[in-house]
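Subject: sequence -> structure tokens, single chain

Hey, anyone have a minute? Need the predicted structure for the following. Not urgent.
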Amino acid sequence: MKSTSINLSDLLPKNFDALLECKGVTFIKRAGEDSVRQVVIDVLCGNNLRASTEHLTRLRLGKLNAATFMVYLLGVHAVKEFGRTIPLMAFKTITGRASKSEKELCQWMIGLTKKGVQNILRDDKKQLEKYTESFAANLKVLATETEKESGKLQCCVKYANGKESVLDWHDMLSLFCTIGSQTLAIRGSEKSTYGKLFERLVLGSVLVALGFEQTIYPPKKTSKVFWLSSKIGEREADATLLVAPGQAVRFDLGFIGRGNPEITKDKVSRFERNLEINKQTYHSATCIIVDRVGDGSGLEEQAKRAGARVIQMSMSYWPIELAKWLSTKFEHESDIANCNATKLPALLKKKLAAVSFENFVRGLTICEAGNDLDT
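Reply:
Had a minute. Here:
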């Protein structure tokens, strides 16, 4: 005989928490080093980050969608009228003590995302009960109307160990709502995720390819080493490179398109000209790496006046341009500087073959699944 209630935690697949977790190392393990390496090489060769990471987003979404479908199948199998109990179960889970993954799933089950909580409930938890009751009533009406228009539905699904679940219109519409909210939330969070994550991955990779060694701050060596994300002085840099004793470069990388010229202009003069590291003074140059710069922005001239360099990732040869700048300014030699643009992908693949990308993102928490799209 079916139960009348169940703990949501009993229905969640074992990999559900891992799919929602957004630590840098977890992401790389989930996506696979080879997939991450290919995306990094694509970006280093001028491809758009969003286009290059779309397959990773689809992979994560597909796994989450499948896991959510299994929650419904197991719930329908175990609980009488499971779909009708979801709104109350979701309300109790969201307002009670539960894991982060349970709360997020329950938000999706009643059509909410983090932005939905902000915009629909105005961050007022007292409104949640009223909203949940309204959601349940509307879903019931929708299921009744759908059955009248499309006929009765009994969707029988057979799955592991000979189990069988039968879903009606109410169950299916509830599932569609959950999947839709989940997709909005995950796609929105991926936008933020990939920005933070690939800033480190791309910067770390291009500097390794140019012949520099990753280290930690404070560094023991005084030349040909770099470290990621550090605050020395007033501003934090995405990477700091010690080219030679007394010579440094501070990098700021952002996947900013030509629609945000003012943000990019602010970065040009953000770093101090001199740094003190291990009681040694370094003259510091600034390198700003952006997706692309709009025509007539005046950014190149402003950068030149500030002693900075702006490099556009939309240029398919941008690592070559960076290598030539380092050669001209600091006399740092790299075979990438003399590489033909058509041969750059193969050379980068060779240089990054043994790189462990986990080292670039260790300790980095990159997103919350609730940071959904602005829709």
